[in-house]
Specification:
The complex is a heterodimer of chains A (546) and B (252). Chain A is mainly alpha-helical. Chain A contains 23 helices and three strands. In chain A, helix 10 packs across helix 11. Chain B is α/β, with parallel strands linked by helices. In chain B, 51% of the residues lie in helices and 14% in strands. In chain B, helix 2 packs across helix 5 (131-139), helix 7 crosses helix 8 and helix 8 (182-202) runs antiparallel to helix 9 (206-225). Classes of the chains: A mainly alpha (546), B alpha/beta (252). At the A-B interface, strand 1 of A face helix 4, helix 6, helix 8 and strand 10 of B. Strand 1 (22-24) of chain A pairs antiparallel with strand 10 (249-251) of chain B, so a sheet runs across the interface.
């Protein structure tokens, strides 16, 4: 039970194992944190986000972009995995950056990421009605030619439904989070595996369907909406009329530009760094690499194979044309041409089609949960350092959950959902979600570069102390990860269309405004703590205990 | 040797002070771990089997953690705030900075390689949890260290295995828990075998060795004889192919 100071040797032929200190079984298993890292990026962002590329870069080679974007993202995943193994604490990047760089730099960078996550929460809650239920019902109604089901889909896009379902989702999600982390992780895993299972079934349907058969299925399905005998080719013609260029082959510059969207949809496989204080075996480099690099690689491989299969069966031009028409709001189809609809069209069984369509909706749950767990632990860490009131970090003894933080976040989330539902300008801020988070990633990359210099003792004791040609691997990955962040900002500002309705200037101003708000919060906390005789700097002298 | 005794006495005094104060506040608290074993070991047990505990391990009932936490803070122990908040209601850590000691609090259950209902019979004994729980808290460890083995032998040397509690190790209770949980049974089996083979290293005296070997044998027979639950039998079919224990992280 207690600390051992010397290593025990073999006694006779029996191996005596050594435990150095008191044991603790933490809540989150490797499977839980791996699923957590992929929860919000694997299904819905694949359906909705990735094919946004074709509106801006119709000649992008998406497969190449996915492969290169995945390889570049792996540098960031690897960098953060090594940092997390070095300091596996609740608060993740905030802890590394505030202890390695400076308290204020750590807080400002992490505050940007927190705001990014809170904004993203409203996307998920409103998506529940619009992208989730509405698209599933509209596709199901269209496939079954059932106007009642189609009318449900239309109803759900009304503001009242959008807000009401978003609030209901928020209350259930935060309610479960306040009751039990284990139950929340169970729900996360269930919804993840069912929704990814739906994607895998869709891939199998595409694998087992020939191009000729697919065209026949699609024409049969789409005729009532396109009023064309050959709807398949009619879709392509309509896309060309709307501006889609089918000739000229792939463009390298457009492919490079499309890396931005690959990063935006796929780079998030590091979220578990924020909850590493609750992860079993978090000081193991192997486990961190599996949960971040392994999960990210799984997700990229799935995207690559799924895209390949949709190109093969539905045809590259048709697939791109459909997504192009959808993003320019000119699709004649009654439902967005997400992979769910395109695969369900080819599914010969209505049950199979229903599984593909409705399993997709469950991804809303795990995607939203990823933000809930992460942000609650960010606030928890700020509160422990004294930047936010200590009251926030109070944990309910019965449920063992930070109920005050969860309540504050639930209220903020409902406010954001109202904004996203009723205000037309919300989607200006959609672009900021990625930009804010990438500031944190850039700052974390700097921490990785400076760890062996500024925190030599922690680095020497770190399980991540690995060198390549005499240079610490964490520094090599830090430089690479910083380059990925720089590339992201370069692409965002070089191709302003990638920012959606926001402009470059608005984006820069937004980053500055949020950063300044963080500086103000930090300064106010510092003044308050100094007056009470417990300066904030005390908290940053050491890394918080595990 | 004298200084060892002084250290043992000092840590025991500290622990007993906590227990007295807790009793005054009507908080059910008992000792667990090395210190509890030391306090329960009769004088006639070979002193070489005893070790000097470094920390104080406490158990309280589920729902009483907050009160105990308040008491420990009042008594001057420094809480690990972040750890206690994250693990509220299950575990708590406190530090005795002056004496460089750690106070480890288990609330309700004891979850390490296996989960034990450590507080279920908390008030059966005055100072420590019953001997059966003390022994089980050691037998459930997969990565046993030398100090854990020493604790097992100290318990077996000082107490017979039989029915009931008090100064007897309640074999029926251990058998009942093992009959419900195949994983616990498996780890106990492994550690009983380890203990049998390690016995000559710790207890050179042949007569004592024979007594302790008998006690181990008797304990194992009771465990084997207990009727197993259906869940136990189903899990037994899978056997060692799937890991049967948790691997606790090191803290502190």
């Amino acid at each position: 039970m207690s600390a051992t100071t010397s290593v025990q040797e073999l006694v006779g032929d029996r191996r005596i194992f050594v435990r150095n200190a008191t044991g603790l079984v933490r809540n989150a298993r490797l499977l839980d944190v791996s699923v957590f890292n992929a929860a919000g990026t694997t299904v819905i962002p694949y359906a909705t986000g990735l094919f946004y590329i074709f509106t801006i870069f119709p000649r992008a080679n998406l497969l190449l972009a996915i492969a290169v974007g995945g390889a570049l993202s792996a540098i960031t995943w690897g960098c953060l995995a090594l940092l997390t193994a070095t300091m596996p604490r609740t608060g993740g990047a905030y802890i590394f950056n505030s202890r390695i760089l400076s308290p204020i730099a750590g807080f400002v960078a992490d505050w940007l990421d927190l705001i990014s996550s809170v904004l993203a929460m409203a996307l998920w809650t409103t998506w529940f009605a619009t992208i989730g239920l509405s698209s599933a019902f509209s596709a199901w109604g269209a496939l079954e030619h059932d106007s009642t089901i189609s009318s449900w889909a239309t109803s759900m896009t009304a503001h009242g439904w959008e807000f009401g379902l978003g609030v209901a989702l928020t209350l259930v999600m935060f309610g479960l989070a306040a009751i039990s982390l284990k139950k929340s992780l169970w729900a996360q895993n269930l919804t993840f595996f069912v929704s990814v299972g739906g994607l895998v079934i869709a891939m199998l349907v595409m694998l087992l369907t020939s191009r000729t058969s697919y065209i026949a299925h699609f024409n049969h399905f789409a005729q009532p909406y396109t009023h064309a005998r050959d709807s398949y080719h009619s879709i392509i013609e309509q896309a060309v009329k709307a501006g889609y260029v089918t000739h000229g082959g792939y463009s390298m510059s457009q492919t490079i530009g499309s890396l931005f969207v690959v990063f935006t949809t796929s780079i998030w496989a590091w979220s578990s760094m924020y909850v590493s204080g609750e992860m079993r075996g978090a000081r193991s480099v192997r486990r961190q690499v599996i949960s971040m690099v392994g999960t990210g690689t799984f997700q990229i491989t799935l995207f690559f194979l799924a895209t390949l299969l949709f190109y093969r069966t539905a045809g590259h031009t048709f697939f791109v044309a459909n997504n192009y028409l959808n993003t320019v709001n000119k699709s004649p189809l009654p439902s967005p041409p997400y992979y769910t609809l395109l695969a369900a069209v080819a599914a010969t069984s209505p049950v199979l089609a229903a599984i593909i369509l409705f399993s997709f909706v469950l991804n809303i749950w795990c995607g939203f949960w990823q933000l809930v767990w992460q942000t609650s632990r960010q606030l928890f860490a700020y509160s422990f350092d004294g930047i936010l009131p200590e009251k926030l970090a109070e944990v309910n003894e019965r449920t063992h959950q930070p109920v005050v933080i969860l309540s504050v976040l639930a209220v903020a989330c409902i406010g954001m959902t109202a904004w996203a539902t009723y205000a037309v300008n919300f989607f200006n801020v959609w672009a900021y979600v990625g930009l804010f988070a990438f500031v944190m990633l850039a700052v974390s990359s700097l921490s990785a570069i400076l760890l062996p210099i500024r925190r030599r003792r922690e680095y020497e004791n770190s399980p991540a102390r690995v060198s390549l040609l005499g240079v610490p691997l964490i520094q090599i990955l830090g430089v690479g990860s910083l380059a990925v962040s720089v590339l992201y900002f370069f692409l965002a500002f070089h191709y302003p269309a990638l920012l959606g309705t926001a402009t470059v200037l608005q984006s820069i101003v937004a980053i500055v405004v949020v950063a300044v708000s963080a500086v103000l919060i930090y300064s106010a906390a510092n003044v308050y703590r100094n007056r009470r005789g417990t300066p904030l700097s005390y908290a940053f002298r050491e890394i918080p205990p595990e | 040797m004298e200084s060892t005794e002084v250290t043992r006495q000092a840590i025991a005094d500290d622990a007993l002070r906590i227990l007295r104060e807790a009793q005054g506040e009507n908080i059910p608290v008992r000792l667990l771990g090395g210190l509890a074993i030391l306090l329960r070991t009769p004088d006639e047990v070979d002193r070489s089997l005893l070790r000097t505990p470094q920390d104080i391990d406490l158990v309280t009932k589920s729902g009483r953690g907050k009160e105990l936490s308040r008491l420990l803070s009042t008594l001057g122990y420094e809480p690990n705030r972040q750890f206690n908040a994250i693990n509220a209601g299950v575990r708590q850590l406190f530090y005795d900075v002056a004496n460089q000691r750690q106070i480890d609090v288990f609330v309700g259950t004891f979850t390490m390689c296996h989960r034990l209902p450590i507080a279920a019979r908390l008030e059966r004994e005055a100072v420590t949890v019953p001997l059966a729980e003390l022994l089980l808290s050691k037998l459930q460890i997969v990565k046993l260290n030398e100090k854990d083995e020493r604790d097992i032998f100290a318990l077996l040397c000082g107490h017979p295995v039989g029915d009931g509690d008090g100064e007897t190790i309640n074999a029926d209770y251990i058998a009942t828990l093992c009959a419900e949980d195949w994983g616990l049974w498996r780890t106990c089996k492994m550690n009983v075998e380890r203990a049998r083979s390690a016995l000559p290293d710790y207890v050179p005296d042949a007569e004592r060795q024979a007594v302790m070997a008998d006690r181990l044998q008797s304990l194992w027979e009771r465990i084997e004889a207990a009727p197993k639950s259906r869940r136990w039998r189903i899990r037994a079919r899978v056997g060692d192919r799937i890991r049967w224990y948790e691997d606790p992280d090191e803290i502190g």
